[in-house]
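Supplementary Note 3. Input sequence used for the single-chain structure prediction.
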Amino acid sequence: MRVALGFRAHSGWAAMVAVAGAMDAPRIVERRRVVIADPEMPDSKQPYHAAAELPIVKAEALLGKSVQSSRALALDAISATVRALQSQGYVVAGCSVLRGSGRALPGLEAILASHALIHTAEGELFRDVLVWAAQECRLRVIGVPEKSLDAELLKRIASLGKSIGPPWTQDQKHATVAALMTLCEC
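The predicted structure, written as discrete structure tokens, is reproduced below.
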């Protein structure tokens, strides 16, 4: 049976859902919280916030170290999930990562000068880490703009929570819809 992974990223973690079936009859196969910021590494959850306090060269180094660490964590989590699903007889057809507005960010100095852009850049960093890791696992990755999720489908998906139990927050619901969209495209 084919499954798709769906991710909704936050600062340092992401909600992950593995979904099988179709839009009208989805089946949640797996769901978990994926840690993508090393709790032992200071400032890894909000690296742009920390970088804003540093000279640009040190800021670049901190961000590079944070990205590498987060990539390693994401790769470990996604590859372990894929292996576990495959061992249960599933074929992972692809992966979706919920995206933000999609507007291009300015250069690092401009980002670090704006608190709003710091938050935007951190969101993009963690989404990009998930995309990179999924591609390293040779998964087809689809970026799904969060604002494009079908409201009616979200309402239908919400009812799944009664049968599968917690956690069934907005994170899991949105990741499920994105994963279903990926199943339809793959």
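The mean pLDDT is 94. Strands lie at 2-10, 13-22, 25-35, 91-99, 141-145.
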